[in-house]
Write a structure and sequence with these properties.
With about 350 residues, the protein is of the alpha/beta class. It is about 30% helix and about 20% strand.
């Protein structure tokens, strides 16, 4: 067994990590930390995790290092991970960071979008972007993994095959995406209040969402020159789930069958990706609770616009499941270990 720590384990992403590691055949949770819930049993906060015998430990580096864990999952707010990671790495641990701290390679871009200077800039170049389906080879042996945000995960998976096939002719990428309320985190807020969220869909942080530069960086890494991303996120009255719709301008001669074939071939061997049959579209309920991504491919021939939809669970493939997937690869385990589980059918 590989002993693992979850730092910030009382939030929704941390709780999902706890759930997944409790069922993992090799990665074993030995310590979970929380600043707000220190001393409380995990099962007191999350009765669904009744099989977990752990209690939330102090939210500090010393508690994690003392636990004997060799791998640390950081499910903490931005700026917290950059304060924790150096000491954990110095102690010889592998760090899988689910926050935004090491995703962006340009410090100025990070400061502009997150409102603070980076306090561990020497680690930025070392961090490996943890989207296995697109950059798997870079993960082997990594010490520090920066797991993507939920919106960039769905967006980049939706765009990658067309961009890599040189089918996209415009640097302008339009993304409309809908996420469930759990994406806002466990802390109460007016927007996530039941009365405000239920029976309503609303756009938020239009032209100002922090995941925008991460999408642009990923699209550039895929080979799209000088990408310009127009991103509009929406909040829907769902507890979990995310659906991204990505619009790409393509060569006028591209046909619908050829477009679908590009995606089917690109993801044919990916264990967690399903490309829907022509004419079919994904739904968030089809991936609920899983590490899967379902992708729909459609072509508006009149405007030469490829419309790609991608459904994921924002708490699993969008956060915790992807972190476990990366940890599996880094640790030399079967990539699907602890993650190849079916979703509820109703």
């Amino acid at each position: 067994m590989i002993p693992a720590a979850i730092v910030g384990a009382a939030g929704y992403a941390g709780a999902e990590l706890t759930r997944l590691l409790l069922g993992h055949p090799v990665l074993e949770p030995v310590v979970v930390t929380s600043a707000a819930d220190e001393g409380r049993a995990v099962s007191d906060i999350y009765p669904a995790l009744a099989s977990c015998g752990l209690t939330y430990a102090p939210h500090d580096v010393s508690a994690v290092i003392a636990s004997g864990a060799t791998i640390a999952f950081l499910a903490v707010p931005h700026t917290a991970a950059m304060a924790l990671a150096p000491a954990l790495l110095e102690a010889g641990m592998t760090v899988i960071d689910a926050s935004a701290d090491f995703r962006l390679r340009d410090q100025d871009v990070f400061a502009a979008w997150y409102g603070s200077s980076h306090t561990a800039p020497s680690l930025i170049d070392e961090a490996v972007y943890g989207l296995p389906e697109l950059w798997r080879d870079a993960l082997s042996g990594a010490r520090l993994v920066a797991c993507p945000g939920c919106y960039p995960t769905a967006t980049l998976l939706a765009a990658a095959p067309a961009v890599r096939a040189d089918a996209v002719i415009s640097s302008r990428v339009i993304v409309d995406a809908i996420s469930g309320v759990s994406g806002a985190g466990r802390s109460p807020s007016a927007a996530a209040h039941f009365v405000n969220a239920t029976e309503s869909v609303s756009a938020y942080k239009v032209a100002a969402h922090r995941h925008t530069p991460e999408m642009a960086q990923g699209l550039a890494d895929l080979g799209l020159p000088r990408p310009s991303v127009v991103f509009t996120p929406h909040l829907a009255p769902l507890d979990r789930g995310l659906l991204a719709t990505v619009y790409l301008e393509v060569e006028p001669g591209l046909g619908p069958d050829e477009a679908h074939a590009i995606y089917a071939q690109a993801y044919a061997d990916e264990p967690f990706i399903t490309v829907c049959a022509p004419g079919e579209q994904p739904a968030t309920r089809h991936v609920r609770g899983s590490n899967r991504a379902h992708i729909g491919v459609a072509l508006d021939e009149s405007s030469s616009t490829l419309v790609i939809t991608c459904a994921i669970d924002n708490l699993v493939k969008g956060t915790s499941g992807q972190a476990v997937q990366c940890a599996n690869i880094v640790s030399g385990l079967e990539e699907t270990s602890g993650l190849d589980i079916p979703v509820p059918v109703v």
